[in-house]
Amino acid sequence: MKQPQQGFTLIELVVAVAIVGILIAIAVPSYNTYVQKGNRAAAKTALLDLASRQESYYSLNNAYTTQMASMGYSSNSNIAIPSATQNYYTLSVAAVSSGTPPGYTLQATPVVGSVQATDACQVYQVDNLGNKTNVNASGSAVTTSGCW
């Protein structure tokens, strides 16, 4: 009496691995895009909060500041967004002008090596006039839709 075959053949295993590989090739980029979109909200919220703090500082001192501690942050260095343990963006005051009228530019820059480093929106910016833009590392405008 012949025993029934048990286990898988090599061809069946190769086909199963190929199917799993194709599914992973489709799912991982889609998942990364989804995660990047979710993390963008933290950058936008932090920038708008910083802009509000700049305006509060201006109302008391009649000037804008580059010092993060002057606006209620724990240090004068760049701030990690959303937190020090999950650092996707660095929040900073990019520029302050004391001309007439005075102004500022705030930036949320993706952290190198994080999932946001490859985000199409790149660097988020907001200025004292409320202009919301995205720029690349060299300062050129990014025209990706859906960032703000």
TrEMBL record:
InterPro entries: N_methyl_site, PilE-like, Pilin-like. It holds the Pfam family N_methyl. Keywords: Membrane, Transmembrane, Transmembrane helix. The chain crosses the membrane at residues 7-28. PANTHER family: GENERAL SECRETION PATHWAY PROTEIN G (PTHR30093), TYPE IV PILUS NON-CORE MINOR PILIN PILE (PTHR30093:SF47). This is Type IV pilin protein. It comes from Chromobacterium aquaticum.
